Amino acid sequence: MLKLVKQITTAAVFAAATAAVHADVSDAQVRNLENRVSALEQRKGATGMINPSARPEVKDGADVFFTGDLLIWQAHENGLGYVIKSKGTALNNSSTKELHSKYSPGFRVGLGWNTPHDGWDLYANWTRLHTKARGSVNTGASSTLYPTLEAPAYVAAAPNASHAHLKLHLDMIDLELGREFFVSKWLTLRPFVGMRTAWIKQRLNTDYVGVASTYNTNMKNNYWGVGVRPGLNTQWGLGCGFSLYGNTALSLLYGFFELDQDQYSVTTADVTSSNIANAHSLRVGRAIAEVQLGVRFERMLAKDHLHFSIQAGWENLMFFGQNQFDRFVSSAAPGVFVSNQGDLTLQGYTLSLRLDF
Asked: Got the DSSP string for 10-23?
């Protein structure tokens, strides 16, 4: 009997302690919620917003802003090795020659509207970049060239020289709906959602110059797609009008490739033979990742009737799976080819101006 009383007493004490702990936890949760609500109420201020708008506001303006960017970008695309140079007649001491690209100028222009609803803004811009890449190699003493873009079945002998030339044309149009707001005195965020459409046109021409014949390969790789583009812009205030910015976005586009390839040879007697004339298209989705980082300076001008900002930074865009140039790889089976060779990367410097009216 005494043992039963002890068990009942222990259970009652344990239940009371558990209830007290739960009560303390519940009270702590309520106090935490009350503190958060109180902090949010204090941040509302006169505007009544929990996260007050941080977009530039000009006096008696049209709520319109313009942007203009100067792009100095460089293109890189893997899977574009156009020839292998070997010291000797074997590949045990060889190197693959890639195309060399230079920085090229481009531009981006945009137009925006600060809507009257909750500090939202609408922004559209157009990005254009036309760039080139070249490569050239000759045989030296005791060296051999092996073509990589010409079908093996049609190359009669190793060439003495090889030249490659790539043209790349990029056009993109973006439409964004975003809202920039303060999360602290010195930090603002601008999440946005939108759409993107992109055109990427590539032309790759290679020549393999031999003693008796020159082998030419002309390839076309065109892509168009449209899809969604969410992202986040951040601004980290430093004071005196200066700040750091860091932006990121991810686009998921659905579109199609148009591919075309012509291979032919020309003899020293100007006799032309067409070896391959192949064209096809495919529908596919593609992802584009982008990041930006730089320094910004901004000022209100004309007695707050005009807002001006200038920024300079580094930008990087990666277009996944853009190299769809076909490679015919088998002499025994001329119809065997591979594609989806790699990704396209655009990177470089961006100088931007913005005016709010």
From this structure: HHHHHHHHHHHHHH
With contact defined as beta carbons under 8 Å apart, do 176 and 194 qualify?
yes
Going along 240-301, which residue ranges are E strands? 242-267, 272-301
Distance between CA atoms of 304 and 284, rounded to whole angstroms? 49
List alpha helices for 167-297, DSSP H: none
Torsion of CA 3, 6, 12, 14, to 10 degrees: -100
CA–CA gap between residue 297 and residue 309 (Å, rounded):
6
DSSP string, 315-327: EEEEEEEEE---E
pTM: 0.82
Indicate left, alpha or beta for 142 from its phi (over 0: left) and psi (-120 to 50: alpha). left
Report the candidate in 104, 105, 108 with the shortest Cα–Cα distance to residue 127. 108
pLDDT per position in the chain (357 positions), as tens? Answer: 445 444 544 555 445 545 444 444 345 555 544 544 454 455 554 455 678 999 998 998 899 999 999 999 999 999 899 998 888 767 778 888 999 889 999 999 999 999 999 999 999 999 999 999 999 999 877 788 888 888 877 777 788 899 999 999 999 999 999 999 999 999 999 999 999 999 999 999 999 998 888 999 999 999 999 999 999 999 999 999 999 999 999 999 999 999 999 998 898 888 888 888 888 899 999 999 999 999 999 999 998 999 999 999 999 999 999 999 887 776 666 777 777 789 999 999 999 999 999
User: Would the CA dihedral through 345, 321, 198, 291 be positive or negative?
Assistant: negative
Determine the length of the chain.
357
Rounded distance, CA 147 to CA 158, Å? 8
For 239-259, letters b (16+ CB in 10 Å) and e give: eeeebebebebebebebebeb
